[in-house]
Structures are given as structure tokens and as C-alpha cells.
Amino acid sequence: MHQALLISEVLREIFTHVNQTGFSNKKSLRRKSLAALAVTCKAFNEPAMDLLWAGVNQLEPLLGCVTRLHPLIYSNFSHTRWESRNCDYSWADFEFQDLEPLSVHEARQFLRHSARVRSLNVQSHHLARLLSSFPSDAIIFPRLQSLTWMTHNTKYMYLFQSHKLRYCSILSAHEGIQSLVSRCAALEHLNIQFDASAAEEQSPLSNSVRLCKRLVNLSCPPLDWAAWTHLSNLPTLLSVEIHAPHSASPLPLKWNTISLSPFLNVTTLFFPIRSVAYIITVMEHSQFPSLTKFKVHHEVPSSAEFEQLFRALSRCQALKEIIITFDGGYRNNNDQDPGSFLTLVPRFLCFTQLKIFQLYLHGSQIYLDDNILLQVMSTWPQIRILEIQDSGLLPSHITFRGLFLALRQCPHLRVLRVPVNITTIAIDPDAKLLPHTTLQRLGLEATGSDYIIENAQAIARIIFTLLPCVIQVNRSTIGEDWNAVNFHLGSLRAAARAAGAALND
User: Fold this and answer.
1) How do residues 258-285 score in pLDDT, each as one tens digit?
2) Residue 106 needs a FRET pair 20 to 30 A away by CA distance; which of 94, 159, 271, 306 works?
């Protein structure tokens, strides 16, 4: 054997390459290759085993190293079930609930490989219960960096503490998560998925978040003010996502005399929650001087609510990405003014640094015409992605002439989706206009109830000539058929390729 292979660093580099390439779509082949390397010789064993056990998708492979559990784990029936991607873990809860926890000798068998694990997915608390014989302060997974806990029962989560844990994703934030995060000072990424709309659930959630001192990314249900105050003092925090199921409304934030520090380094906020009042309260009483990305998804607000939200958002002049999705039609209340949403787009022109703007108003209308589109693209010369979509029930006032005139203002635009009037093609397809060579994805929403694409060949020729990087027009979800346009586009491209090949010959 070559002397270079006796150097552990060299072996790890080679084995890492084996683990990452060659069988990229066949995980089982990569694992078999590492297993074969591990038994080749003593020098190969440690680096190969470290990679083989680095990522464990379930607890079963580790428990299968215990002599008593091996027949149960690797029986044909059980093995097939836990290897399935869509495994229903009710079978594991049934088969393992009466088993005794690991003995001292069995614990030593388990520890042979648990010390190598860096990423772990736990999907059954009954399997985790088998580890309860370990002392509460034991470090069973000393190298664990990523933990995904896919069961609502967090009773045994404390067993997975690690001083190196950086990422944690869980379904529930009961007392178990508090015990874990209090012992994992290095935790940087926390994802909690459960619904905390009830007060008795919101308290342990907020308490858990307040125990995290080095958070970088947080995704969780709505928090109380104590947790927001804590987050405002974390210089490491970069992104926050507050989510809740569509059917749940978070508890209202009752403002008091607590003074929040500015969120100095937060660059991303995402609010996929039903209550716009919660979002408004957070934005009105907080400062986000470094915010570059704002994303929100909720029901269509009233005109008064939108004004409050927009005023709070307008203080964030560093914004480069705004993504807004309003679901449902206009609410039937006295302060709702549909006209305030028809002219929604020009309100955002105060954000002059935008590179991404996506506005989806499902069940409602947005007014756009050639002048507004030209104003938008002139104000946002650095825009990369521009998508504006409404219910599509009313005809668009954007013409093809106005569309291509506006495109000249945005040389960096890569993705465009807007409603367009397809009844009149006001551009001469043979005219010598400057092509836009950056745009790659195009979605044209043919709007109105009586749209008929009668001039598919002319539209295809215009797109082929002026947008040479667009392969096809993306079809809308509302049902118009761009197949004819895309067919002609394909024919034009095929003819151009044939002509190019003939010239080369």
C-alpha cells in the first residue's frame, strides 16, 4: 500500500470524494462502498466508519448494532418499513413500546457508532425511550451537529444533547426542547413547526427561544414580547420566520412599555400567518435597519391594515426583495376599499433598490397598464425577478408594445410574469428592435373572461426575435393555453439551429 494512504487526512479526503460522487443518485451504493472500505484494512476502518455513520436517517441502524435488538430491527418486515421514505412509525410505537431500555453492556454496543453521528433524524419516541437508561447528563452523540425530531413527544429529547449541535428541527416546543437547548450553547438554527396559538403552548415556545444565545436562523410559531425582546439583543440573528396554520390565528401581541433594541443584523423576515395584526404590531414596534428581504403570506387585509403595514415596512429602505401573497377575495367589511388594491403596485416604488418583487393577489384584482409598468421598470433598473399576478378575471391594460418598451429599462431582468392584453399585437415582428438577452423565464397572463389566443404565430415570432433566451412561455394556473405559442417557438428555434448547422457545414 502506498505510504500516502497511511496519512489519515489523505484517506478522509479520498473517502469523502467516494461518498459524494460516483453514486450520487444511489445512496445505498455509496454506503456499500464505504462499508467495503471499512473492512479492507485497519488503516481504512476509522475514516470509512466515520463517514458511514455521519448521517443517520433513523435510530434503527444504531439500535440494530445491539445484539438483542438486531433480529427485530433487521427482520424482513420491519427493515422494509423503516427504510421506506413514507414510513408510518405507528408500527415502531407498537413493537418497541414494551421493550426494556438498553442495559449497561448494550449501551456500550450502541456507543461504538453513536459517537460518529453528526446528523440524525428521530421519528419515534418509543425508539428514543430505549436510550433512557443513560444518565441525564450523558453525552451519547458528542459530534452531533444536526437533529431533526419528527415526533410530538419530546420527553427523551434531552438524550440528544451535544455541545456541537448547530441545527435543530422539531414538531413541538414542550418542556423537552427547553432541556435540550439549555445544554446546547452552540445552537444556531432552530425550526419549530407546531401551532402555538394557545397560551399554554406559547409560553414553553417563547421560553425555549429565550434560552438560545447564538441563534442565526429562527423559524417558529408566533412568539410573545419577552421572546422578541430577547431576539432583538442577539447580534448573531440573521433571519426570522413566524408561521402558523391557515386555520389558526395567533394570540394578539399586547404592547407594553418594553423597549426593543434594533434588530441590527436581521436581513430576512417571513410571516406566513393568518393574522396581519400580529405582523403590523411587530413591524411598528421594531427596527430592522439591515432588512433586505421581506416575505408575507396571509389573507387580503383591509385597506386600513394595509396602510399600517406599508407605513411600517417603508422604514426599511434597504429592502432588495419583497414577496407578498394575499389569499382570498376582499373581505366584506366597512373599511375595505377594493380600489386601494387595484393601484397597489405604485406604492412600492419608494423601494428603489429592489432586485426581486413578487406580488400575488389571489381572488382580487391589480390594475396595471403600460405607464405603470414603464414607471416600475424605470424605478427598479436592478430588478432580477418581477412577478405580478391577480385573479385574472379582468382584462389587462398592458400591451405588447408597452411590455417591450418597459423591458429596455431593466437589462438584468431574468424572470418576468405579468398580465398582458393579447387581443392586439401592436409590434411589427420584422421591426429591428434591440433584443433583451438576459430574460430567461417569461409568464404572460392572458386575462379576461373572453381571451382567445388567435395570433399564436405572431406572438411566437415576437418572443423569438426580442427575447432570444426564452425557451417557452410559462402557462398560468387559470387555464389559458399557450401550447400553440410554444409550438411555434419550438419550430422557430429548430429552424434557427438547422440554419446554423448548415452554415457550419
Assistant:
1) 678 899 999 999 999 878 888 998 998 8
2) 94
Cα–Cα distance, 165 to 351 (Å, whole number): 38
Mean pLDDT of the region 409-418 = 95
Q: Which grid coordinates belong to 300?
A: 387580503
What beta strand segments (E) does 390-436 contain? 415-420
Query: Is pLDDT at 382 greater than 50 in this prediction?
Result: yes
Residue 252 CB partners (closer than 8 Å, separation 6+): 275, 277, 278, 281
Residue 97, CA distances (Å) to 90, 129, 152, 422, 481 in order:
10, 8, 16, 64, 55
CB count within 10 Å of CB 256 equals 7
Cβ atoms 321, 355 nearer than 8 A: yes
Q: What is the DSSP string of 293-354?
A: EEEEEEEPPPHHHHHHHHHHHTT-TT--EEEEEEESS---STT--THHHHT-GGGGGG-TT-
pLDDT score of 196: 53
Q: Please report, to the nearest 10 degrees, the dihedral formed by the alpha carbons of residues 455, 460, 463, 469 taken in order.
A: 160
Amino acid at 41: C
pTM for the structure as a whole: 0.84
**128 vs 112: CA distance, rounded Å:** 17
Length in residues, the chain: 505
Q: Which of 393, 394, 403 is nearest to 372 (CA)?
A: 403
What integer pLDDT is reported at residue 89 of this predicted model? 52
Q: Count the Cβ atoms, other than its own, within 10 Å of residue 454.
A: 12
Q: What confidence tens digit (pLDDT) does each residue in 142-175 have?
A: 999 999 998 888 888 889 999 999 999 988 766 6
Q: Among all chains, which residue has been given the C-alpha cell 434591440?
A: 434
Are 475 and 481 contacting, i.e. CB atoms less than 8 angstroms apart?
yes
State the pLDDT at residue 353: 94
Name the CA dihedral angle for 232, 237, 239, 243, rounded to a multiple of 10 degrees: -60
In this predicted structure, what is the pLDDT of residue 199?
Answer: 47
Amino acid at 269: L
State the chain's mean pLDDT as an integer.
Answer: 83
